[in-house]
Specification:
Blueprint lengths: L2 E5 L9 H10 L3 E6 L5 H8 L3 E4 L11 H16 L3 E5 L1 H10 L6 E6 L8 H10 L5 E4 L2 H9 L7 E3 L16 H5 L6 E6 L18 H11 L6 E6 L5 H13 L8 E4 L6 H5 L3 E4 L9 H6 L4 E4 L14 E4 L4 H14 L4 H16 L2 H12 L5
Parallel strand pairs: 1-2, 1-4, 2-3, 4-5, 5-6, 6-7, 8-9, 8-11, 9-10, 11-12, 12-13
GO molecular function: glycosyltransferase activity
Protein name: Glycosyltransferase
Keywords: Glycosyltransferase, Membrane, Transferase, Transmembrane, Transmembrane helix
């Protein structure tokens, strides 16, 4: 029996690591999480699942200070006391901390990369080039990310691409409720974007949000100008206070709040009825792993995605969706036009079925979690 410890820099996000760790537990192994103190969605999920949780003795801040080496030493002592056979970590701050804190420890280090955004920062890319070989195995969340790490010098034999996947048993198409949810009529065209709004980052894509809300809203203004039957549904508040401030400014600037056929929901208890009532999902991100396109496709909703990061892996071009250049308003307008025209007849329905099949074959969360567990326990496949 092995003991696997997962280290994450957050008590809020990172819930995608839980199915992977639970798969290890189901095979008879001990699991535990080390996360920051405080309440959050991740902490609540772990408590509900009865998973051992320890509060990290390091705050995952790398600002130069006397507290930095002390915090890393405390994390090292904490991990030594836990005596893990495997230390599993996601997110770049977690990776940096664990690599340093476990130097010369016998535990096997497995790093899983959720998305490629931080590799677009030259300083971080330089640091990763130096430190990535401290990972015994790197599990890239996409083929795109695997290529990036091989280019940084990680030996190909130590890099494997396994997506996080999505729960295809939960995300199944239900009844169309567009009339009740959006006040739309049967036959109206519904496009949906499900994503938090992130404030612009100074180091990567300065001045614009990473999820591409600006691109979609500009494209929608052009696309829907003479289409009274076209509705845009936006689901997602600001990710944090800065993101919410940015969302308010953006929506005010582009007239979202006053538009009768743009419907914004800050949050929803269950997103499935929204996908079931949409004709197409849009993911116009500037950088992304697979994003909301997996959930949308599992729900039988075709997607328009940008060519950023691993998003193209989430669709079969021309069969289950469209791929457009990132930040290209004109190309996005053209894709929306194609989706709008395809709603007549059976074309969109056929694309939705193809989208579902693609997810079942390549992105079933249960299968993906099983493959990650194989890696953690030493049997890469």
């Amino acid at each position: 029996m092995s003991r696997i410890v997962c280290v994450l820099k957050t008590c809020e996000g990172g819930r995608w690591a839980v199915p992977q760790m639970l798969e290890c537990r189901s095979r008879g192994h001990e699991i535990a999480f080390v996360i920051p103190p405080g309440d959050g969605r991740l902490r609540r999920l772990l408590d509900n699942e009865g998973v051992e949780v320890l509060e990290s003795r390091f705050d995952f801040s790398f600002r130069p200070s006397i507290g930095l080496p002390i915090g890393l030493w405390r994390l090292r002592r904490q991990l030594r006391q836990m005596a893990p056979d495997v230390v599993f970590y996601h997110l770049i701050a977690s990776a940096l901390a664990v690599r340093i804190a476990t130097l010369f420890m016998r535990a096997r280090r497995v790093h899983m990369v959720a998305g490629p955004l931080y590799l677009e920062s030259p300083p971080i890319r330089f640091i990763e080039r130096l430190l990535v070989r401290l990972d015994d195995v790197l599990v890239a969340g996409s083929e795109h990310t695997a290529v990036l790490y091989r280019e940084l010098g990680m030996p190909p034999s130590r890099v494997i691409a396994i997506p996080y996947g999505t729960d295809i048993r939960w995300f199944e198409k239900g009844p169309d409720q567009r009339e009740d949810l959006f006040g739309a009529e049967v036959g109206d065209f519904i496009a949906i974007m499900v994503a938090y709004v992130y404030a612009p980052k100074s180091s990567v894509y300065p001045g614009t949000g990473i999820k591409g809300h600006e691109t979609l809203l500009e494209a929608w203004r052009l696309f829907a100008a003479n289409k009274p039957d076209a509705h845009l549904v936006l689901v997602g508040s600001g990710f944090d206070s800065e993101g919410e401030d940015y969302r308010r400014r953006l929506f005010s600037k582009l007239g979202v709040d006053d538009h009768p056929r743009i419907h914004w929901f800050s949050s929803v208890v269950d997103v499935r009825p929204f996908y079931s009532s949409a004709d197409v999902s849009v993911s116009p991100s500037l950088s992304e792993n697979h994003g909301a396109a997996l959930e949308a496709s599992a729900m039988g909703c075709p997607s328009i995605v940008s060519d950023a990061g691993a998003l193209p892996e989430a669709v079969v071009r021309g069969l289950s969706g469209w791929v457009v250049p990132k930040a290209d308003v004109g190309a996005l307008v053209a894709a929306l036009e194609m989706a709008y025209e395809a709603r007549d007849g059976t074309a969109l329905a056929s694309m939705g079925s193809a989208a579902r099949r693609h997810i079942e074959i390549h992105f079933d969360q249960a299968d993906c979690s099983s493959r990650v567990a194989d890696v953690l326990l030493g049997g890469v496949r």
